[in-house]
Amino acid sequence: MPRFERKRRIFKNKDALGESYQPDSIEERDEEIDAYMDALQPIVDGWEPNNIFIYGNTGVGKTAVTEYLLDVLQDDVEAYDDVSLSVISVNCKTLNSSYQVAVELVNTLRPTGAEISSTGYPQQTVFKKLYEELEAVGGTILIVLDEVDSIGEKDELLYELPRARSNGYLDEAKVGLIGISNDFKFREQLDPRVKDTLCERELQFPPYDATELKNILESRAEVAVVDEGCESGVVSLCAAVAARDSGSARQALDLLRLAGELAETRDADTITEAEVDDARSKLEQERVEEGMRELTAHGRLALLTVISKAAKDETPCRASDIYQEYTRLCESSGMDTLAQRSVHNHLSDLRMLGILSAEENRSGSRGNYYSYELDVPFTSAIDAMDDVLRLDREIETIREIAVMNNVG
Ligand code: ADP
Ligand code: MG
């Protein structure tokens, strides 16, 4: 008997739930697609392309819609002999400056073996090499810079490239930039001259609501999961969870995939809501752990303090109460205490990471203050703390208190 045996009881195409899958159809984005097509129209008409800037949280379909529409566009312009369209896509996630992005673009355009080194040239030299390559391609060239916010403050390329034609560097090539960003702050922080050109056309992708996510998930499940592989309610639950949290289709898809994997390990034939619940806790815990790895020891302790308050069923609670609990924890674990102000800063950081949520209270004479509580399930939070903090005794006590109070 073979030791490995194919299962495939739940999934008929699990890859369809993965990162690299490109869906055949896009659901629920008709308005965005219309606006996007409108921004791309000059290309079809044979004019210089617009520069387009697309922003929205992660998982809202920016990359998927872009890939889908540019494929359609490339097919459709073949009808016009006087339009020759090339699309160059680069994900900037690991490229942290204009220089690195420009090198990457040059090397994408050059044949294997003729790549340039990623260090050692003056920046203008790399830009010139890029213009040469673009001229050699000629025609209309769309350059897609996905996750362009990674480029950070060294954004000269975003200024130079749209001006290359009017500055005389390009003649044969008509270049359009499509910048995609998960980070709205990036747009705000752009140099006004860059903003003017790059954001010539702007498209915002809002988060999906539960109904939209349900439709997206349903049509994906048809491709990915065997018939009868999902109990009724499973897709809606995944959609509802993701809608409440992030409005991200990626989150909803990840949830469904992990739920399917759990059903598989349990040798089941269908995914039930129980697997979705378990998948959700697991993903949430991963998120908390990821966030926690970024924290300093004191940041972790600040979080443990809120967890301890939650165990006593005393959250939401204000920063001053958290501070009292914090000094108590520090004493019992033999750590130095930070000033209240620093602990406050740690609480804000935890809020940014989505681990805590805060509510502003108005209290007349004494001004406004914030009340904090966990924004992740109690169990995920304390389990994650177990792995990163060496405070076994304190954590054990908190668990016992939580059980007494029926928390978690
Ligand atoms: P973003 O680039 O905004 O972070 P993606 O485009 O990568 O998000 O979308 C995340 C996942 O959700 C991908 O697997 C994508 O195929 C899927 N997806 C997002 N929006 C839609 C949609 N409207 N229709 C079908 N699939 C979608
Ligand atoms: Mg993307």
TrEMBL record:
Cite the entry's keywords alphabetically. Answer: ATP-binding, DNA replication, Nucleotide-binding
List residues of the Cdc6 C-terminal domain. 303-385
The domain of life is Archaea
Sequence similarity: Belongs to the CDC6/cdc18 family.
Checking SUPFAM superfamilies in the record gives: P-loop containing nucleoside triphosphate hydrolases (SSF52540), Winged helix' DNA-binding domain (SSF46785)
Binding, ATP: V60, G61, K62, T63, A64, Y208, R220
Q: Name one GO molecular function term.
A: ATP binding
Chain ranges passing through the membrane = none
The protein's name: ORC1-type DNA replication protein
* Gene Ontology biological-process entries: DNA replication
Function noted in UniProt = Involved in regulation of DNA replication.
Per its UniProt record, what InterPro entries does this chain match?
AAA+_ATPase (IPR003593), AAA_22 (IPR049945), Cdc6_C (IPR015163), Cdc6_lid (IPR055237), ORC1/CDC6 (IPR050311), Orc1/Cdc6_arc (IPR014277), P-loop_NTPase (IPR027417), WH-like_DNA-bd_sf (IPR036388)
Q: Which residues form the AAA+ ATPase domain?
A: 48-217
Does the keyword ATP-binding feature in the UniProt annotation?
Answer: yes
Q: Which HAMAP family match?
A: ORC1_type_DNA_replic_protein
